[in-house]
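Project outcomes to date are best conveyed with an example. Our students and postdoctoral researchers have been running inverse folding experiments weekly, and each run begins with a structure described purely in tokens. The record below, which covers 108 residues, was selected by the lab manager from last quarter's runs and is presented without edits.
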């Protein structure tokens, strides 16, 4: 697996933010030249559930989160530098205990 990127070159950034849970989760969409869609975001402390329509890969850039995939009961911690994937037409609960969790989400 490749390293989590520190920058994305040659992208188109969508300036309107994606704001969820009263501003506790905020992201911006970026479109890569090859058509890949990603979002760059941050999560404030709390627990949040997201549904997926397509498969997603979440790369944790900074901070730590705890994730429970829909259909499972086991929660797993993901510190900076780790990755988890979520199936399409599914979902996950992501919790941040303290500080901020920063991520890159790739829509597969």
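After processing, the design step wrote out the following sequence:
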């Amino acid at each position: 697996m490749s390293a989590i990127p520190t920058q994305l070159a040659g992208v188109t950034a969508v300036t309107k933010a994606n704001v969820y849970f009263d501003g506790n989760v905020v992201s911006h969409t970026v479109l890569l030249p090859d058509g890949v869609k990603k979002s760059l975001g941050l999560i404030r402390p709390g627990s949040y559930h997201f549904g997926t329509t397509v498969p997603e890969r979440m790369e944790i850039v900074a901070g730590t989160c705890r994730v429970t995939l829909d259909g499972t009961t086991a929660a797993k911690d993901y510190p900076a530098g780790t990755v988890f994937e979520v199936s399409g037409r599914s979902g996950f609960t992501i919790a941040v205990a303290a500080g901020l969790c920063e991520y890159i989400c790739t829509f597969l």
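The radius of gyration is 13 Å. The chain has a mean pLDDT of 95. The training component of this project remains on track.
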